[in-house]
């Protein structure tokens, strides 16, 4: 597949997840919850998740933001269901590396990014990287029950 076709495919995934966000809505208590805000763009997201032991049994998000922030949250929630907390942390590390253009540690290669690779294109647009990382930082906060809202600043 040539680069242009790859770019078009990734674009389609982002457009699709922005138009039809997966797992959009609120999870009823008891659940973990965290709020995130990206002041550079105005994106506001809330991430909800339920755990059974150390496994993520359900995860949802709501809020509003630009196409990148919504697509990132939608793709993230799809990827996280059924994962352990440790796997979620590994995904966070790999996504952060993908989005910021740094190399992920080789030892963490066992978690497949799959469709999340679509978000790698934002690397070329530094002002949009925080749109894509917002959901992930908010996830971290939800996993750790951090009561303070997350801000990307
Ligand atoms: Zn944004």
Structure, explained:
- The protein has 153 residues and is α+β, with helices and mostly antiparallel strands.
- It has four helices and four strands; from the N terminus they run αβββαααβ.
- Strand 2 and strand 3 form a beta hairpin.
- The mean pLDDT is 90.
- It has helices at 3-19, 67-80, 85-100, 126-143, and strands at residues 32-38, 43-52, 55-64, 150-151.
- Helix 1 (3-19) packs across helix 2, helix 2 (67-80) runs parallel beside helix 4 (126-143) and helix 3 (85-100) packs antiparallel against helix 4 (126-143).
- A four-stranded mixed β-sheet has the order 3-2-1-4, with helices on one face.
- The structure holds zinc ion (ZN).
- Zinc ion binds at residues 38, 41, 43, 65-66, 68-69, 131.
- Residues 38, 41, 43, 65-66, 68-69, 131 line the site of zinc ion (ZN).
* Largest sheet: spatial strand order: 3-2-1-4
- The global form is globular
Which kinds of small molecule does this entry bind, naming each only once?
zinc ion
The rounded distance between the terminal residues' Cα atoms is 37 Å
Tally the beta strands.
4
Sheet bearing the most strands, described?
Answer: 4 strands, mixed
Helix fraction bin: 40-55%
Query: What count of helical segments does DSSP give?
Result: 4
Spell out the key features of this protein:
single chain, 153 residues, alpha+beta, four-stranded mixed beta sheet, binds zinc ion
What is this structure's SSE topology?
Layout: H1 3-19, E1 32-38, E2 43-52, E3 55-64, H2 67-80, H3 85-100, H4 126-143, E4 150-151
Bound molecules: zinc ion.
Residues 38, 41, 43, 65-66, 68-69, 131 line the site of zinc ion.
């Amino acid at each position: 597949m040539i680069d242009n076709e790859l770019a078009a495919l990734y674009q389609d995934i982002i457009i699709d997840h922005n138009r039809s966000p997966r797992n959009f809505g609120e999870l009823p208590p008891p659940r973990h919850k965290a709020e995130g805000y990206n002041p550079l763009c105005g994106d506001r997201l809330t991430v909800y998740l339920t755990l059974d032991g150390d496994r993520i049994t359900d995860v949802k998000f709501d809020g509003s933001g630009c196409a990148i922030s919504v697509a990132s949250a939608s793709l993230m929630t799809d990827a996280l269901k059924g994962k352990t907390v440790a796997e979620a942390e590994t995904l966070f590390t790999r996504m952060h590396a993908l989005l910021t253009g740094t190399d992920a540690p080789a030892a963490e290669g066992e978690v497949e990014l799959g469709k999340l690779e679509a978000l790698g294109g934002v690397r070329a647009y530094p002002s949009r990287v925080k749109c894509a990382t917002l959901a992930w930082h908010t996830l971290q906060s939800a996993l750790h029950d951090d009561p303070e809202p997350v801000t990307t600043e």
